[in-house]
């Protein structure tokens, strides 16, 4: 199974948080929803961390290329 | 005034005859008596025929009507006259006396038994020729505009980075070396490629020579981004070729942008008017090319910086949002509410939101953060 992208996970997380903030949700559902949200949040953070590392690597390459030019 | 020669015919048997010299001398006498004074003549110098060794000039003069010669004669300018006239001519018209110009000549009739009829030129009015040259400029402009070619080369899109330049110039000229110095030495890392197509750049044969160079470049046009005509250090003399209709037309119909840097201080020539870009000097033209590369380089640097800044900012924003979500989740989590002293009440596993849901004697369960308690309802206050 293809793992979900950051954007997909983030959208899902946002949707759950909106549900939790509303009044429709029952307290019984809250615990499982919150657990689900926390799992998504952790995954998002991890993805973001990986993306950040990739971006930093690219930026470093750009700086290196600049130095070689000059 | 020629010497009066009274000639008597020679008698041989029954025939009287004259010698050729006698006949021609008689013609000379008659002509010189009739045309003794100087006068102004308008004529085109078809060939100037200046002999450097003797310094004398033997121009062929013609008058044309609808492109056909209707009158033609030889003329003669003695060395001293030539030097004086040419000097005056140069300083006024910025052109030397040369083939194909229309002139107003001050002359007298000459006739010689050996050389025949000729006009001896004593003076030339340079202002008249200047006017004729101006007329040529106006005519070229008018014709090119009439043919709808005027903007053609200007409309060609100049490449963002003109990296491959076809140069029409003279290798030994100052203009060419000025141009190459700037291009190659100031910013060698731009690696601009140039190829020289040698050509005359001023004077009578320059038109044909430059058109030939352009023809050659057109054959290999796929290898070039632009054509540059570079001339410098030649002063203002001999630039009328840049007003020539054929050359101007070749530029306006050329498939690549033509740029000029022909270094002069007089009025703009028609070639410069129709070219894609014109610079006053070869140096200025080189600066223009270089500046395109410098600007692009700066743009790239700016974009790189923007890319770095924007991506970093975006990631920071995303992280902030995630942290906000975490806070919201903590606030919403009922466990945390229970920890702060709130509790939840159930009746038969259903959450009780109001006392009106209960009646006396119901057994309810109260959930705390760490435990629960079971109680009986004693009283209900509404």
Shape of chain A: rod-shaped
Q: Let me know the CATH homologous superfamily of the largest domain in chain B.
A: Response regulator
Mean pLDDT of chain A: 84
Tell me the structural class of chain A.
mainly alpha
Largest sheet of chain A: none
The biggest beta sheet of chain B is recorded as: 5 strands, mixed, barrel
Helical content band of chain A:
over 70%
Query: Would you give the CATH topology of the largest domain in chain B?
Result: Rossmann fold
Q: Under the CATH scheme, which architecture of the largest domain in chain B would be assigned?
A: 3-Layer(aba) Sandwich
| Global morphology of chain B | rod-shaped
Count up the helices of chain A.
2
Largest interface: A-B, 25 and 21 residues
Strand order, sheet with most strands of chain B:
3-4-5-7-6
Q: What does this entry look like structurally?
A:
The complex is a heterodimer of chains A (70) and B (382). With 70 residues, chain A is mostly helical. Chain A is 84% helix and 0% strand. Chain A is built from two helices and no strands. In chain A, helix 1 packs antiparallel against helix 2. With 382 residues, chain B is of the alpha/beta class. Chain B has three domains: 99 residues, OB fold (Dihydrolipoamide Acetyltransferase, E2P), CATH 2.40.50; 147 residues, 3-Layer(aba) Sandwich (Rossmann fold); 42 residues, no CATH class. Helices cover 40% and strands 24% of the residues of chain B. Chain B contains ten helices and 16 strands. At the A-B interface, helix 1 and helix 2 of A face helix 9 of B.
